[in-house]
Write a structure and sequence with these properties.
Length: 163
């Protein structure tokens, strides 16, 4: 009698959830997924710029992405017993959008400034970003990058307009 092989698999989040949280798999990069996720926000920024999105629509988009990211991240982290897994980079996308909101330009020097400052503040995690980074739920996972985006955006605004 032939033995039947038992096929086992590791259960994970659904494809739409992975696509959203990893920002179309950019968070699955083998090295520096946060940096890759931040870079992967640039096509969205170019699209928003081409659409000439106003600040109110941009803020509505950021709030919508934030709420969705917090809710979905919370479910995934709870269900799969994770804490801020590196492949979740939707928070970097939101942080980049917030930083870009202060500049709203796609000129290379401005995007370089937005990217560089956001990555710096995301890595350094100045309070209260450091507080949120330690929380073990969706709000903490996403909000630390919101705070970093605000810090980076304020500095980018002043560098761009006063230096």
């Amino acid at each position: 009698m032939k033995e039947q092989k038992v096929v086992s698999y590791v259960e994970g989040p659904s494809l739409p959830v992975v696509l959203f949280l990893s920002w179309f798999y950019s968070g699955k990069a083998p090295k520096a997924p946060g940096t890759v996720g931040s870079l992967a926000a640039l096509p969205l920024i170019f699209l928003l710029n081409a659409l000439e999105i106003n600040i109110y629509s941009l803020l509505a988009l950021v709030v919508t992405l934030y709420v969705a990211a917090v809710l979905v991240t919370e479910q995934v982290q709870r269900k799969f017993q994770l804490h801020d897994p590196q492949w979740i980079v939707i928070d970097e996308v939101i942080g980049m959008l917030i930083t870009w909101a202060f500049v709203q330009s796609v000129a290379f020097p401005d995007l370089f400034l937005v990217f560089g400052l956001f990555r710096l503040f995301d890595i350094v995690k100045i309070w209260p970003a450091s507080y949120f980074d330690r929380l073990h739920h969706g709000v903490g996972t996403i909000t630390d990058d919101v705070v970093s985006g605000l810090y980076a955006g304020i500095i980018a605004y002043f560098v761009r307009n006063y230096l």
